[in-house]
Amino acid sequence: MSKILNKKMIIKLVALIAIIALMVGVTIAIMPWINSLQTPEGREKLELYIESKKTVGTLIYIGLQAFQVILPVIPPIQIIGGALFGTFWGSVLSFIGLYVGMGIVYGLVRLVGYPLVEALVNKKNLKRFKFLQEPDRVALIFFVIYLIPAMPKDALSFLAPLTSMDKKTYFLYVLPARLPLVILSVAFGSSISDGNYSLAVILSIIMVDIGIIGIIFREKVINYFERKTKSKRHTSHKNDTKHNQGLKKTGIILTLSSFALIICDLIFMATDYFSKCKAEFLEYHDLKGQNQIFYFISNYGLYWFISVAVIGLAAYLVSYKKQKIQHKVQNI
Asked: How far apart are CA 101 and CA 53, in angstroms?
């Protein structure tokens, strides 16, 4: 029996080394190309190449989306997908690539086991999500975390195969939670490509706002699920107080900084130079000139700043309400 176990361990160890070596080798080989995608010129070259090679280009795009899941070093590829394929087909191809990448990750982790996860996932995240090993509400936790932006989805993708959640539940019911954010990114890229700047602004405001909300409240979401699992039911009051103070500070900083930017923006919009920028934008309706860019940022930026101020105020009010509840509990 021990010999069989030793053989299995040796096979897993060899597979682990081979997989890591392959991933490192591929990453080193394509890193110069990946770095080029960080620049507008590099992304433009990719778009031109995919447009010139229809079938091959589509497969390349799906491969990039899959690779982004396996090794997240590529910038949001869905925006390029929206510009190239439109909202519908861009979303379809992005989700195909997402499923391919997730399928590869799931299969590799099932084959090699925890050593692969330990080698590729940050130790802090491994410790942070240790509570997922318990069977309570695992599918719901994954669904919510995938749905909320700014969550450590890449780490969770490697942890999912090690939980009690079965393959059918994961691929049919949990992974679709990533679809809304994918569609938003694709639609944003499509609207920019079509010159529909009003829609692009609306979508960007939505993406920025839900991203900020995700960053602000992600600790509260994770802590909530931690408390609901068996081993974390007795979370200390000290940790709750610390997170609440952090939320309060974040709310104050967001609100005050946004109000300051709103005032500066309104002052700029009252100048003659802004009127000149506005006239040029309305005449040409593109973003090729400096004046048009200034008008676009100052005019539509006002809506960004207002939305962020509202989020900051909401975060402060939530922390204030939580603080009052904590004081009442202490006084009982």
From this structure: 22
